[in-house]
Write a structure and sequence with these properties.
This protein is mainly alpha-helical. The chain has one domain. Helices cover about 75% and strands about 0% of the residues. It contains 18 helices and no strands. It is globular and about 55 Å long. The termini are far apart. The mean pLDDT is about 80.
Length: about 425
């Protein structure tokens, strides 16, 4: 029992560090710990180490939203929520955004637990049906999303063009000789983070005073958006190769809502992230398919995963998300209060320079061609700026990941 509590504590601390540190992914820490698993297991049990992996994954998924909100620094898991979160921040509702993510993530696990009996009966059969039709599922959801999230035909046309162009860029970059990490760091940081920061710089944006009112209304719409994210996270658990970015698209389609607000985007993205993290573990038991690096480690450590293990991990997930819900609110409020005392213009310029240096430095370390990386980087920045000036959602840029997935599943290349 003490070992389990220690694993939760250490996993929570490590999840906070990976979540709050831009560029430090939970998988980086995960592979280091997993590589040291043999000596670690001399002092503890497989179940304890699995508890650590589950905890760090959940806490990271909750905390990583904070850099995205404050600085516009996106990861593959948070790109769908960067622009909506920034809208709330510049309306003085940063505290509200933090609470939407925190309570949305918590509620998504509660919904997932309530749906478990249905999921255990339906999803194995659904997997057999869907696994050969992933491309068509993605095409359908994108068509519905572009239609429902735009009120005019001209905006739908702009959204379609942005989606296709970003997808073409993503296909060529991801299928190039660049390593997967280098390619993703280059295009995602440029398209979502740098473009957002540069737009703020060009407008000489300043953070308004943040509203003291920190209450949120948990109404029917709140539950609907979170449930859509939670269900979408379960769907991701069945479909290999899809991540939270694609899951957010599916979640928005499930709501069939033309008037999607920033709050809706944030809630669904939070629901997708948390439920996908948990369901990637359930997928081992239901369909024998570990859906993430963390679930692969768990699958290796517990070669015969049984129902009792699944229920235990759900309990650990509920404990972890409860703890991280409170921690993310405390850290988020603290950072928002402090950032108001900083010159936001200078901060944005500094972040642009810093991220650019990180991308180029990482390219040098991985022996990537600097000229090619620079061209991809500049192109991604330019493309990322277009939605701001065309007044359309930046979520259309998720084509950078979705189009390559569609092409792959259609077997075109």
């Amino acid at each position: 029992m003490i070992d389990i509590l220690a694993a939760i504590l250490i996993g929570t601390l490590m999840g906070i560090i990976t979540g709050i540190t831009p560029g430090l992914h939970v998988n980086t820490v995960g592979i280091i710990i997993f590589s040291l698993s043999e000596p670690i297991l001399n002092h503890t049990s497989n179940m304890t180490l699995c508890t650590f992996f589950v905890t760090i994954a959940i806490v990271h998924a909750m905390i990583e939203f904070i850099p995205s909100l404050i600085f516009g620094l996106s990861t593959e898991d948070t790109i769908a929520s960067v622009q909506p979160a920034h809208r709330l921040l510049f309306k003085g509702e940063g505290h509200k955004a933090i609470r939407l993510v925190s309570f949305g993530g918590y509620l998504s696990i509660v919904i997932l637990i309530m749906l478990l009996p249905v999921l255990f009966m339906v999803l194995p059969a659904a997997y057999c049906i869907l696994k050969d039709h992933i491309a068509y599922l993605l095409i359908t959801t994108m068509i519905l999303m572009i239609y429902f999230t735009n009120k005019s035909n001209i905006n739908r046309l702009y959204s379609l063009l942005i989606f296709l162009v970003s997808g073409i860029l993503g296909f060529f970059v991801l299928s190039s000789n660049l390593s997967g990490n280098t390619a993703l760091l280059c295009i995602l940081s440029a398209m979502f983070s740098i473009s957002t920061l540069l737009y703020s710089v060009s407008k000489k944006a300043h953070l308004p005073p943040q509203k003291i009112n920190k209450c949120i209304n948990i109404d029917r719409r709140f539950i609907k958006s979170t449930a859509a994210g939670s269900i979408s996270g379960c769907i991701l658990g069945l479909l290999p190769g899809l991540g939270p970015a694609q899951g957010s698209v599916i979640a928005q389609t499930l709501t069939f809502n033309r008037n999607i607000t920033p709050e809706d985007f944030i809630l669904t993205n939070s629901g997708v992230n948390i439920s996908d993290t948990i369901f990637s573990l359930l997928a081992i038991y239901l369909i024998g398919n570990p859906r993430s690096a963390i679930s692969m480690y768990v699958n290796y450590l517990l070669s015969n995963l049984e129902l009792i293990h699944v229920l235990f991990f759900i309990f650990i997930g509920l404990v972890s998300v409860s703890i991280s819900c409170m921690i993310s609110i405390k850290i988020g409020d603290y950072v928002i209060q402090r950032v108001n005392n900083v010159n936001y213009y200078n901060l944005n310029v500094t972040l642009v320079v810093l991220i650019t240096i990180i991308v180029l430095s990482y390219s040098v370390i991985t022996n990537a061609p600097i000229l090619y990386v620079t061209i991809c980087y500049v192109t991604s920045v330019a493309l990322g700026l277009l939605p701001n000036y065309l007044n359309i959602s930046k979520s259309n840029l998720m084509g950078v990941l979705i189009v390559p997935s569609i092409i792959t599943y259609l077997g075109l290349f």
